[in-house]
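Protein entry
_____________
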Amino acid sequence: MAVPIVPLTLGINIADPVLGQMIAAFLAFTAVVQIVAARDLDTYGWAVFWEGALRWVAASLLITHGFFGHLGVMAGFLGVADFLVGLVFLVILPRVLGKSRAELIAGR
């Protein structure tokens, strides 16, 4: 996303390269958070849980604007992938940690 030719090659229509760079920075930050959290899920599982909620927001936007809007079909497929990752984080993670969703939302 940070290199303008990449979204074009993937068939994703981003109007301004700066938007692609902002998205790339956001994705890099969330990747770092997930890597750090994965080292100690009991302590940082709440961050992964919130990432799942963020993935569902991204999925709703990418699916809607990818399949039915102007972003391009590939963006829609990326949205489906975000939905599935969010599903793991929001549904399976609480079971693995043995914590309720309310505990994870509260950061416990």
